[in-house]
Amino acid sequence: MNACSAPAFVVARQVAVAAALLAAVVQGCAAKADAPAEMASESAAPVAAAPVVAAPAAQAPAGEDSKVLGGLVAVVDGDPLTLRDLREYQKTARVFLRPELRDNFEALLQGMIERRLLLGEFEKNGVHINDQMVEHYINGILQQEGQTREQVEKALASAGLKWSDYFDRMREEVQRLALVDMLIRSRVNVTPEEVERAWKSDPAFLQSERLELADIFLPLPADAEAAAAVRAQATEVVREAKRNFADAARKYSQGITAADEGRLGEFERGTMAEYFERAAKGLDAGDVSQPVEGGGGLHVVKVLKIHSKGRRPLEEVSQQIHDKLYDARLEERYQKWVNDDLRKEHRVEVLLDDLALVAGS
Fold first, then answer.
1. Which residues contact 242 (CB under 8 A, 6 or more apart)?
2. Bridge-partner residues for 348, per DSSP?
3. Residue 226 confidence (pLDDT)
4. Where are the alpha helices (DSSP H) in the chain?
5. Which residues in the chain come in under a pLDDT of 70?
6. Angle made by CA atoms 52, 82, 353, in degrees to the nearest 5
7. Rg of the chain in Å (alpha carbons)
């Protein structure tokens, strides 16, 4: 499968994953890998852990001779993984991980094993991503995050990495998303009943009373005599506004919403400018205020509607709730697949004694 022929997986929700990776690079490297970076696709064992990088062999720290570096830490389908492999993996992967995982060798090993398994799944399922698709994906992330390639390259260089390391990491991330689309997405479903239950139980969808307002704005000149004439005119404006506010707004208002019948939108009490609060105080839906002064002029305000406090209408937020539930369920299903189902299809042996040697080195 070529991803260019199946772009459905490149959706806004999934872009957050690569955006988090970009943030980890730019922020994490800039802070010398000390600042926390939340990873959208990580658990205790990172998802889509590292780029395919032909990195040079890592130099052995003091006390690690070639024999130790050649020691096995795991075997995947008969393919040995050595301490040297793990050190090389750590070199390119750590910058993309949360700080608490960067020197956690057990997490690094699990990430390296997962990557080996995923690479095999990419090949088995024909998930191949060309450079153009990766460029397109990265450009979208850079634009969304307000970053430039130069900024990312500088951050990578501070960690001893190159643009190709990030590029290859993004290629694997796009492959992972394509694989999720192919093998997992169809297994995930969110029902309307589940959306409604979440809507009823989530306090985030409670809202205060909101007023829908319209305004006729009459600027007050600095000249006292001219200002008095505007005040006198305001009395007539109120009379006409009570008969037909929309016509009066188009005729008299010099505010930016005059052509739209003076409509300002919806506001919660206590969040408006002080003079609008005064104008709307005590008004019911359909009422028109007396002129109030503020913001360089006089305002005649109409309360078009009053939306009572309570939950936001379900139809307004159902898609938002659905997407949130779907994303959580998709991630949960992915974790089960990669940590349980996938490993049952392969022979994975972790050599804990050698891992203890690694951790203690």
1. 288
2. 76
3. 95
4. 12-30, 66-69, 83-93, 105-124, 131-145, 149-158, 163-183, 192-201, 224-243, 245-252, 274-280, 314-336, 342-344, 352-359
5. 1-70, 352-361
6. 135
7. 30
Residue matched to tokens 């930016």: 256
Residue 315 contacts residue 252 (beta carbons within 8 Å): no
Q: Cα separation of 286 and 256, whole Å?
A: 22
Q: What is the mean pLDDT of the chain?
A: 81
Give the whole-angstrom CA distance, residue 108 versus residue 90.
Answer: 7
312: tokens are: 């936001």
In the chain, where does the domain assigned CATH 1.10.4030.10 lie? Answer: 3-190+325-359
Strands of 297-307's sheet in order across: 263-268, 210-219, 297-307, 292-294
Domain with CATH 3.10.50.40 in the chain: 209-308
In this structure, which amino acid lies at residue 22? Answer: L
CB 96 within 8 A of CB 108: no
A 10 A CB-CB count for 36 gives 12
220: Cβ–Cβ under 8 A, 6 or more apart, which residues? 227, 230, 231, 293, 296, 297, 298
pLDDT in tens, 2-56: 433 333 333 333 444 445 455 555 555 544 434 333 333 333 333 333 333 333 3
Q: How would you write 299-357 as a 3-class SS string?
A: EEEEEEEEECCEECCHHHHHHHHHHHHHHHHHHHHHHHHHHHHHHHCCCEEECHHHHHH
DSSP 8-state symbol, 203: G
CATH top class, domain 209-308: alpha beta
Asked whether 301 and 215 are in contact (CB, 8 A), the reply is: yes
Query: Taking a C-beta distance cutoff of 8 angstroms, is the pair 94, 120 a contact?
Result: no
Q: How far apart are CA 299 and CA 292, in angstroms?
A: 5
CA 328/CA 181 separation, integer angstroms: 15
Task: Enter the pTM of the model.
Answer: 0.57
Backbone φ and ψ for 165, nearest 5 degrees, come out as -65, -45
CATH of domain 3-190+325-359: 1.10.4030.10
